[in-house]
Design goal:
The chain is 86% helix and 0% strand. It is built from five helices and no strands.
């Protein structure tokens, strides 16, 4: 039964592990940039998310979805999804910090969870869809 569940949810499990690592990297970069006041929190978010995007693409492509064809096209799609997540994150941070008066580090943690779920769905069904699956829908 556990083996069957793993097979069924393998991509989600690995995406979660890789995502957890990349989210930790994103959060770490963001926190350092904010803590040392290197730049304003919204700019720190842009930088930290880009670190996460590039790392996540490489790890998910190689270890999770194992789809290595059309790397430029897949990266463009993954990057577009990442930018959509960045936009969502920026809106959430701005709203919670500026309008809500919350701490920017706490807000970053909340935004990571919401954005990760959003991006998983888009990446699974768009970016890392196999060529065979693409052919069925075209």
């Amino acid at each position: 039964m556990i083996k069957e569940l793993y097979k069924k949810y393998r991509n989600l499990i690995l995406y979660g592990i890789i995502g957890g690592f990349c989210a930790g990297l994103d959060f770490g970069v963001y926190t350092v940039l904010c803590h040392f006041e290197v730049m304003p929190y919204l700019w720190a978010n842009v930088i930290s998310i880009h670190v996460g995007i590039f790392t996540s693409f490489g790890l998910n492509r190689s270890f999770n979805f194992k789809v290595k064809d059309h790397p430029k096209t897949r990266f463009a799609s993954f990057y577009a999804v990442g930018l959509a997540g960045l936009g969502l994150s920026e809106l959430m941070l701005w709203g919670m910090v500026t309008a809500g008066g919350m701490n920017e580090v706490v807000c970053k943690l909340v935004s990571i969870v919401v954005v990760a779920l959003f991006q998983y769905v888009l990446n699974k069904y768009i970016t890392f869809k196999s060529v065979r699956e693409h052919g069925k829908n075209q």
